[in-house]
Amino acid sequence: MGTYDFTPLWRSTIGFDRFFDLVDAAQHPSSDDNYPPCNVERLGEDRYQISLALAGFAPDEIGITAEQNVLTVEGRKAAQAQREFLYQGISSRPFKRQFNLADYVQVRGATFDNGLLQIELVREIPEAMKPRRIAINGAPASNVREIETKAA
């Protein structure tokens, strides 16, 4: 199946650019190899956690950036003296991993323990965006007048 052209939809929709960009990106397989491995889990109705396996990295070699609706995790090993490995199974290559976040999802914090980076996310919808109940005002009973009619 080929890709779908969203150009006709852009002419009749306003504010859905980000949605169409995400759908378009999902149609094209990414060239990265999904390194480092990660888990994304839901901890509650509005709480999430991303866990990345970063064996061999130190906390000062990892950078986390939250910008608009994109969370970026980058890692680069510090330069070390040349070592001679007989076998190197633990990767220490630089990486950059990006996660698209939904609206109102904020990064609450991050912890690094035993080679596992855990990033806590929370969705905080502003009070103005939450559904609210609207009171219905009716006419008070004192304003109701009876119209006189003649009996037939």
What does this structure look like?
- The chain has helices spanning 7-12, 17-27, and strands at residues 38-42, 47-53, 62-67, 70-75, 95-100, 105-113, 116-123.
- The protein is mainly β.
- It has two domains: 1-31, no CATH class; 34-130, Immunoglobulin-like.
- Strands 1-2-7-6 form a four-stranded antiparallel sheet, with no helix packed on it. The protein has a three-stranded antiparallel sheet with strand order 3-4-5, with no helix packed on it.
Indicate the topology.
Blueprint: H1 7-12, H2 17-27, E1 38-42, E2 47-53, E3 62-67, E4 70-75, E5 95-100, E6 105-113, E7 116-123
Antiparallel strand pairs: 1-2, 2-7, 3-4, 4-5, 6-7
Task: Give a summary of the structure in a few sentences.
It contains 2 helices and 7 strands.
CATH fold group of the largest domain: Immunoglobulin-like
Low-confidence stretches: none
Which H/E pattern describes the elements? HHEEEEEEE
Determine Rg (CA atoms, Å): 27 Å
